[in-house]
Amino acid sequence: MEITRLQIILIMGLMALAVRAVPQLFFVGQTFPEAWDRWLRYLSYGFICSIISVTLFMSAGRVEAAAAPRRAVALALTIYIAHKTKSAVTGMLAGAALVLILSWFH
Amino acid sequence: MFATRFRQGMKAAIPIWIAFVPSSLAWGIAAQDHGLSLGEVVLMSAWVYSGPAQFAVLGPLAEGKSALQVLVAGFLMNLRFLPMSTALAPFFRGLKWWQLLVASHVISASSFIVPYMQFQKDRVAVSANSPNAQAMEGYGNIAFFLGVGVTSFMVWVTGTAGGFIAAFGFPPGFEEALKFILPGYFAGLLVVEMKGRAMALICLGSLIAALPGALASPAWGWLVTAMVVATLGWGWEQWKLHAYK
User: Fold this and answer.
1) How close A68 comes to chain B (CA, Å)?
2) What does DSSP assign to residue B92?
3) SS (H, E, C) chain A
4) Which residue has the higher pLDDT, B33 or B113?
5) How confident is the model at residue B170 (pLDDT cuts 50, 70, 90)?
6) How many domains would you assign to chain A?
7) Which residues of chain A does B90 touch, with a Cβ-Cβ cutoff of 8 Å?
8) Which of chain A's residues have a Cβ under 8 Å away from the Cβ of B207?
9) Which one of B75, B89, B204 has the shortest CB-CB distance to A15?
């Protein structure tokens, strides 16, 4: 039996929903042991940092070598400003402004 | 209370909306290039709602590869939602199963990070003990989560349809700033919440290790390196805790 593109999309969505919903339904409101809780937290932070790195420095499976230095500088500025001001948005705006200016000079 | 927390979530999601605009437009344009119809584009964005998985299956779908191949590719990309959903679950106590089922549809990397960081902060500030207080906390948390998730979802779906309808081109420099917004915002959130040496080392280690990991395997490498670095950091901290006891 041939599966149509529409059916593929529908099955794909169901599988995505299952991956999202199953942990919610099984672990809702549960308090994990302190060590587990910390491991889960560290895992989340590790994922977030990996996402930052891959989003900023890679495109289509390759390192964006030309843009990487200016983005790294902008990321460093973001971290510094966010740390000093205790504001994620201020840090992000400073970094975005810097990367914009640097890309114009490039 | 629900409306207030929903609005707070919406406010926190503004950088995500801005960042979703170019990527959703890009996917809409790419989908049109690959021969998908507008209906398929909107359905896929609304029903699958996963940028990386949507990009990953575009080629195989257009080339008429086997359904199994497309589904496995999409499933592997979406497995990253498993730990995210698990990490969020403890914050939604007191909710009915169907409410969780509906809400879980809008879990994405972005709509996970912002609420998760907020819940961590709230947990330190308020520690609910009675069952009623715990249920109230769960409803407040889901309202905040939906404020982030539903609005980001709407921007994503609208953006992909917009990208399909009209080819959209940002000036190169402007695009560069848009690309920076989301990772920059995530980095800022982490820095503001940063506590202890273990967390700083895990963040730095994951940031660096993700690149060789993603080069080795674009779909899985960065996930594996994050898991390894986080587990090593956690193990080191556990060992230190036991050594001092």
Assistant:
1) 11
2) G
3) CCCCHHHHHHHHHHHHHHHHHHHHHHHCCCCCCHHHHHHHHHHHHHHHHHHHHHHHHEECCEECCCCHHHHHHHHHHHHHHHHHHCCHHHHHHHHHHHHHHHHHHC
4) B113
5) low
6) 1
7) 27-32, 37
8) 49-50, 52-53
9) B75
- pLDDT tier, B241 (very low <50, low <70, confident <90, very high otherwise): confident
Question: A69: domain range?
Answer: 33-105
The structure tokens 């390192």 sit at A63
* Cα dihedral across residues B210, B56, B217, B212: positive or negative: negative
B contact residues 125-154, partner A, Cβ 8 Å cutoff: 134, 138
Pick the residue of A4, A20, A27 with the most B CBs within 10 A to test the interface with B by mutation: A20
Tell me if B87 sits within 8 A of B116, measured CB to CB. yes
In the numeric block, which tokens belong to residue B83? 């730990």
Tell me, yes or no, whether A14 lies in a domain. no
A90 in a structural domain: yes
Q: Beta strands of chain B (E only): which ranges?
A: none
- With respect to residue A18, please indicate whether it lies within any of the assigned structural domains: no
Q: Note the ipTM here.
A: 0.83
Q: Best mutation site among A22, A34, A49, A89 for testing chain B: the one with the most B CBs within 10 Å? A: A49
pLDDT of B174 over the 80 cut: no
pLDDT band at B172 (very low <50, low <70, confident <90, very high): low
Question: B63: number of CA atoms within 13 Å, CB side?
Answer: 9
* Distances B126 to B115, B129, B148 between C-alpha atoms, Å: 16, 10, 21
Which chain A residues touch B48 with a CB distance below 8 Å?
A: 9, 12-13, 16
Of B93, B92, B96, B122, the closest CA to residue B107 belongs to B92
Which A residues in the span 4-63 are in contact with B, Cβ-Cβ below 8 Å?
A: 5-13, 15-17, 19-32, 35, 37-58, 61-63
